């Protein structure tokens, strides 16, 4: 199993907007081979810190997704988001190999 997180700090006044974007996400990734689950996490102490948490069957499954046209399409849409303040936020991405359960 492989876990990937992507954490961002958004402007406090735009937190609800970003949460809404993720609630209405395209879900293209949900159909990708090897994809297991998606969660959007909100930090209890810093409400404007959001983390995308994705679980994959393997690192190879994740890398296949990252190299796909679907991945490129979704991330191009993000770059062209009308709110440039949100579009320019760079997430902290962390990848984990599950070594015990």
From TrEMBL:
Name one matching Pfam family.
Answer: ABM
Instruction: State any single GO MF term.
Output: monooxygenase activity
Q: Highest taxon of the source?
A: Bacteria
Q: Where is the ABM domain?
A: 2-90
Q: Which InterPro entries match?
A: ABM_dom (IPR007138), Dimeric_a/b-barrel (IPR011008), Heme-degrading_MO (IPR050404)
Q: Which UniProt keywords apply?
A: Monooxygenase, Oxidoreductase
Indicate what this protein is called per its UniProt record: Antibiotic biosynthesis monooxygenase
Natural source organism: Alkalihalobacillus trypoxylicola
**Lineage of producing organism:** Bacteria, Bacillati, Bacillota, Bacilli, Bacillales
């Amino acid at each position: 199993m492989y876990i990937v997180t992507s954490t961002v700090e958004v402007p406090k006044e735009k937190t609800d907007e970003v949460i809404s974007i993720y609630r209405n996400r395209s879900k293209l990734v949900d159909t990708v081979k090897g994809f297991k689950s998606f969660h959007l996490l909100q930090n209890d102490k810093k409400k404007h810190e959001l983390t995308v948490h994705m679980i994959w069957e393997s690192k190879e499954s994740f890398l296949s997704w990252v190299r796909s046209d679907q991945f490129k399409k979704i991330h191009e849409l993000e770059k062209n988001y009308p709110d440039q303040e949100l579009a320019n936020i760079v997430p902290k991405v962390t990848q984990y190999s599950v070594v015990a359960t």
